[in-house]
Each structure stands twice: as structure tokens, then as C-alpha cells.
Amino acid sequence: MAAPGTEEAVCLISNVKHSPMENDVENKLNNHTEQQHQQDEIEDKEDEDVSSSLDSEISDALDLLDSKEEGVGYSFSPSSRRPNSHGGHRHYSSTLQPRANRNQKFSDRIQASPLEEWEGRMNVGMSNSVITAIRGSVRESAIGKTKTTDKADRATAERAIDHKTRMILYKMLNKGAFRDISGCISTGKEANVYHATQSQGQPLAVKIYKTSVLEFKDRARFMQGDFRFKNGYCKHTKTMVEIWAKKERGNLMRLKAAGIRCPTPYLLRLNVLVMEFIGKYGCAAPRLKDAALSLDKLREGYVEIIIAMRTLYQKCKLVHGDLSEYNILYYEGHLYIIDVSQAVEHEHPHALDFLREDCVHVSDFFKKHGVAVMTIRELFDFIVDATIADDAVDSYLEEMQRKILARGDVSVEDEIADSVFVQSFIPKTLDDVENAEEDVQRITSWKDTKDLYYLTITGLKHALSLTQSSQQKTLLQKSSATKDSPIISDDKSNSLEDDADVQSDEEQDDESDSEEDSSSESETMDPANTKAARKEARKDNKRKVKEEKREARKTKVHKAVKKRKKKLAKARKTR
Ligand SMILES: Nc1ncnc2c1ncn2[C@@H]1O[C@H](COP(=O)(O)OP(=O)(O)OP(=O)(O)O)[C@@H](O)[C@H]1O
Ligand SMILES: [Mg+2]
What we know:
Blueprint: H1 6-15, H2 25-52, H3 54-69, H4 99-123, H5 129-142, H6 151-154, H7 163-175, E1 180-187, E2 191-197, E3 203-209, H8 220-223, H9 237-257, E4 265-269, E5 272-276, E6 279-280, E7 283-284, H10 295-314, E8 318-319, E9 328-331, E10 334-337, E11 344-345, H11 351-368, H12 376-384, H13 393-407, H14 412-423, H15 436-444, H16 454-457, H17 460-481, H18 496-512, H19 519-524, H20 527-555, H21 559-574
Antiparallel strand pairs: 1-2, 2-3, 3-5, 4-5, 6-7, 8-11, 9-10
Helix pairs in contact: 2-3, 2-9, 3-4, 3-7, 4-5, 10-12, 11-12
Residues 188, 326-327, 339 line the site of magnesium ion.
Family: Belongs to the protein kinase superfamily. RIO-type Ser/Thr kinase family.
Protein name: Serine/threonine-protein kinase RIO1
EC number: 2.7.11.1
């Protein structure tokens, strides 16, 4: 039974065009989330029903068949009982019937039409493992081989098509969700994806999550900490898989609502997700990895995907968590994000780690193919910087492009800085900052703040650059009033980090040269600032000395040990 509201939700999503983000995206997102919650609740209930009892699934299917058979021989009413395998109408409580019999009865009934239908379709050229699995199962159960207690029945063909999944596929087929499944697109590590066709001929992608135990072992790290699973989640693999499929549907809806290119989800039943097929003439779009794009196309693709990553973070409040050339499809000149089942909310404790991994994978791919890319840190900052307005994204990227071209190949220092960044802890809120006071001191004295990774994500960078530019303005006003030369050069107002760079260079000069030699510095800096900087440099020096001493203490041999050694040496001599 299709979940009430599914069609409406899907209609709503499919109306969202791949246009640039509009202002009402947030509203749409909210509406979607609400709708999704309602729909989820309804489906939850239904899913619970189905998962708790395969019998109800079977009954549904039987009901469907019964209603189909109405015109053929006998009448059916909800209260009437179905003929059992011996024929004739019997009034019995289905719960009292032995399990094996019930299944066999069901199989006998369902076998009649669907098997013929499947066989018929296979004659027109269908041959794949799904069909084989379904056909095999139906045949076996029809001749009474299948028992519910049989391990083989519970096991999964290609680790995806287990008995329950087959039932779902039956149901979808009978309901007309698709006309046939005409091929396997992929047998991935967590799901198999099949090509299906709707009755009107439109192609569909059917993703069937594998229910095997081993594959989902590492899934927990994506679930733990996601508020959507705050009430806990069942570690039973099948339930996990169902949650996973549901998560993918929900995440795809969010992406769609925000205008990110991705498959539109159409229908979800337990571990089976029916969605838009990305591809043409039965051929799935190639993965970015296999697309063999020209350098120009790759450049376009890079910009497209990093904007999508930013939208995903800023609008959908999600981090993909497995974004790479393997989970991006190239179709009609654009990149489509797929496989979002593991995508996590911002709130997830590891969201930033996952985001950083995504940045590394995306950057590595494009860099390997000759695209001049941002550093990981720059890309990360671009994605998380909430202060960049939507209409300023293009100019931000143009500016970044100029910067990349100006610096040429990534320097060794940048590479080292990136690898340090990749391994560092990123505080997400100021509560997570370890030495807040020390950091504040560094920030207020305009020292090098490059290693303060949280400046952008917390919005501090922007706030500080505003404060600084207002300070500069007043200084400029003062200097023009006294008709002095400008105190701070124009390009210093660009960003806090640039300032920090300049400042730290000056500090280094300050340390290496004598104080009198800093005449060039005094030309470009306010004396008050210089004084503060020198004070800070001195403090820094003290800190360094202290640290060195601390290090030396670590390797220091204790007095008592020394004494003992001396004594021993003496004793050896006297012997
Ligand atoms: N909507 C779709 N339209 C066309 N092809 C699709 C669609 N969804 C998935 N595919 C194809 O199926 C493959 C696997 O899909 P997906 O990544 O979602 O599953 P997976 O189990 O994570 O697989 P993998 O382990 O290979 O990543 C994709 O690489 C892609 O080629
Ligand atoms: Mg994948």
C-alpha cells in the first residue's frame, strides 16, 4: 500500500526545478520536513505493521489478488474467508493457522498470476538476477519447498533480495509502481540498484538495501549523534537497513527542495527505494569517475559540486559523508549527487570530520585531473562560512579563482598546512574551544590566527574583519586629519587572515631584527599597535622558553637516580 501523502510529496518535489537557489527554499525545506515527518509517521506505522508481521503483508497481497479474482469466479468481501489450498470457503482465524501452511497457501495463490507475468516478461528479453531470484522463490514456494524456518528463505539473493524484499517487489509490481525490472545497474557494498520501467515507459531506479549483517557494521558511526535517532536505533541489521533507506529518501527530498541535482525519490517500502532514474535509453549516467570529461568540463564540474556542497551544508543542514567521484553522476552536462543515506545533520558530533573528508575526496579527484583547486581549508571554509550571501557566492569564487591562479601550484607549506588541518580538531562552537582566553589574546593582538580553525564556522572571522575595518577607518580618518601618510595599507582590510599573515611576518621581523631596525614597520603601523605587538612577541618568547624548559624537564634525569648511578660507579671502581 503506498503511503498516504507519498504522491503529494513527490509531486511537490518534482516541481522543484534545478534553478539557482531561491529565497523560498527555506520555506520549502520546512514544509518538506514537516510533510516528511507526517509521512514518516504514517509510514512508520505501516512499516511497523509490515515488519512486525509478514502475515499482514501476505494478507495484503492476498487481498489484492482476491479483489482481482472477483470477476473471475467468486465474490470477495473483507469479512469473507479465502479458500485454502484444499479449495472452498473456510472460516478460520488466520492467526490460528500454522505458519508454513499460511505461506504455502499464499504462495499458491500469488503464484498464479505474478509468476506468469514475470515469466511473460522474461520472454521479452528480461533476464537478471532479481527476476531469477523472484521466479525461483515463487516456484519453490509454489511447490511447497519454502518454509518460514528455512535459512535459505531468510537469506538474501545477492544479499538484497530476501523473502520480505520479494514480497515488497510483488506488491509494487501489482500496484503498478513499475511494470518490470529490466536490469541491474550496480551491486554496491550496501545496496543493489536496478533499472525498472513504469507502465508509461518511464525509467526508474530501484535501490534495494542489502540486509546482510556484515555490510552495515560501520553504519553506527553515522547514526550515533544524529538527533533523528536520539531515541536510539535498533541494531538489528534489517531494521537498520530500513532506517537507512528511509534516511536516504528523506535526505534526497531535502536536496531536491534546495535545488541540488539528485534523483527524486518516488516510493519507499522498507528497504526498497524507488527513485528517478538518472540516465537515458536504459543506460545509467556514468559516475564522475568514469565520465572522462574534458578539462573545461571538469572545471565547470568542480565549481558546480562545491556550490552543491555548500548548499547541502547551508540550506539542507546536511553533510554527505561519502561524497566522491563514486557517488556523483555526470548527466547532461551536470553533476548529480547520489547515495545520501549516510548523510548526517550539522548537529552530528562528527559532521565536520565527515565534511572535511568529503572536501579531501572531491579536491583530490579534481586536482588529479588538472583542475586548479582550493586548498582543503579554503574549500572547507567556503562551505561553512555562513556570512557569504547567496548572491555573493559567485564573486567569492571569482576572487578565490584569482587567488589560486596568482599563487600557481600549491606550495609545500600549503600542503603541510592542509594536512595539519585535516588531522586537527575543529571546534564547532565557542564552547568547544580549549584555550579561549589565549585565543582571544591572539585575535585581539592581530597575531597569526591561521590555526584557529573555528573562526570561519563560528562567524568570528567575519565579525573580526568588520571590527578591524572600522578600526582602520578611524585610524585613516585620524591620519588624514593630521595629514600624515596612510597608516594601514588598503589591502590590509581584505581579510583577517591576510592581516594575520602580514602581522606575523612583521612579528618575525620584529624578533629577528633589533627594535631600532623596525623603522619600515613603524611606517605602516600604528605605534600603539606596534607596542602591543612587541609586548605580545615578548610574551610569546617567554612562552616558548617555558615550553622548551618543560620539554627539557621531560628528559631530565632525577637527582636521586644520578646519585645512585654515581654510587654504583664508585662501588664498581673500589671492587
Ligand atoms: N537514481 C539513479 N539513476 C541511475 N543510476 C543510479 C541511481 N542511483 C544509483 N545509481 C547507480 O548505482 C550505483 C550505486 O548506487 P549507490 O551509490 O546509491 O549505492 P551503493 O550501495 O552505495 O553503491 P556503492 O557501494 O557502489 O557506492 C551508482 O554508482 C550509480 O551508478
Ligand atoms: Mg555509493
